[in-house]
Sequence to fold (99 residues):
Amino acid sequence: MKISFERSGGFAGLRLSALFDTELLPPATAAALTRLVEEADFFALPAILPGSPNAADMYQYVLTVEDEMRSHTVTASEDAASDALRQLLQYLMRLARKR
Fold:
């Protein structure tokens, strides 16, 4: 599975992005990412999860996940993400910061 992750916005407007390939990651990390994608039901999410128009300084995420048979991109505001999607995004942020 390949994952493209981008976070932008927030108070400082900083951007964080990274690309991940589960075949190149340690097995435990790859398994965790696969589990989090499945728990978020990522491929069933709508392409856009807009946030509240009154929520200033929220982070915006663009996440693309590709597996052997499909590719899906979701653009989500921080306040619109489900708990499961939020867990996936937080895990990806930790990984991206380590790079």
In short: The chain has one domain: 2-98. The chain has two helices and five strands. The radius of gyration is 13 Å.
